[in-house]
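Review the following:
>
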Amino acid sequence: MPVVRDLRVLLRLRDFRRLLAVRLLSQSADGVYQVALATHVVFSPEKQTSPAAIASAMAVLLLPYSLVGPFAGVLLDRWRRRQVFLYGNLVRAVLACGTAALLLASVPDWLFYASALSVTAVNRFVLAGLSAALPRVVDERRLVTANALSPTAGTLAATAGGGLAFLVRFLSGESDAPVVLLGAALYLAGALASLRLSVDLLGPDRHERQDHPRLGEALALTARGMAAGLGHLRERREAARALTAMTVMRFCYGALTVMLLMLCRYAWTDSESEGLALLGLAVGVSGAGFFAAALVTPAAVRRWGTLRWMAMGAAAAAVLVPALGAPFAPGPMLVAAFLLGLVTQGAKIATDTEVQFRVDDAFRGRVFSVYDVLFNVAFVAAAAVSAWLLPADGRSVPLLLGVALLYGAVAVVLRRTGGAVFHVKHRP
């Protein structure tokens, strides 16, 4: 298969392998940490979880640190990205240890959320930096394949980390502290792996950097930098369309995630442990869909283009979501989890490629930070809508139909504005 051959070529690139190792360790730690948060909020025996409670938790964890996104973009275009990976992962390792201590001390929920917020805030810098640095370690001809491998491998690493976290959770009884400590160890490993990369390899170049600004200067630079980044994005219409479509698809994915959480918690099982096991299975099946997307997306993009490929995925989701979801049974839902994993990750690969190829290197950090903020806000908005529509057991036909309509709208708009097939050999 051409994609397998291309992957072998990429893995022979030393710097790509090293950057990939940082991503895998960092995102596996993210998966562990996210499962620890989910099990504490949703599956703790002493908690009576509702859609509103899940929405509140997502708002606490996602919305505040979305504000870090613009700062992350401006600073990523001024800081050496290798150093961001090193110090970002070190800080997260220390903060995760603090979260574990709070769990053992049984502190109030607000203090736990504040600690979790600190860990996930740093995550904005690391993930945006990984995406912005990728074009520095591969050539343009292989950028689509690199986008298929690297972010998808990171997502699979997060899924594997989540699976390992489920296992540790079962072995440790009802305590989430050992799971959080496992995440801290993986963050530390990610920091050490970044030392294998040259300090200046990942950019930005020296002439594009400035000294670390003071707080007042950072605020002003943020406003001016984001305005410049958005202005640059407006000139790259294909990238802007892909970002908009991905935001809507992220909203749909978030709404279905909350539904799945409630179904696992109350509708399909009689105990927290059984619900947690079923959720773990669904996460694994969705991860298989991510892997499938990595295999098929490069060839699909070369044949149909990024926007048309996204349109095809959205159209498939518009049909399959109500067809598989309406019975509200575990079997069809697991099939839907695989297909939505494929569609969502395929769209993300296409969007990453559009942004990385269309956006100039000096603006990539800012644009990817905007991308990140849109992701988080869409997910939180989906949780809020789900809290309004979902009953306690998670069964809601109106929610399924609404999500299907949104997927259909994305498919129609992208199909009409898809433009020419995307070629990586010629920069626009």
Observations:
- The radius of gyration is 21 Å.
- The chain has 15 helices and no strands.
- The CA atoms of residues 276 and 330 lie 13 Å apart.
- The domain at 2-417 is CATH 1.20.1250.20 (Growth Hormone; Chain: A;).
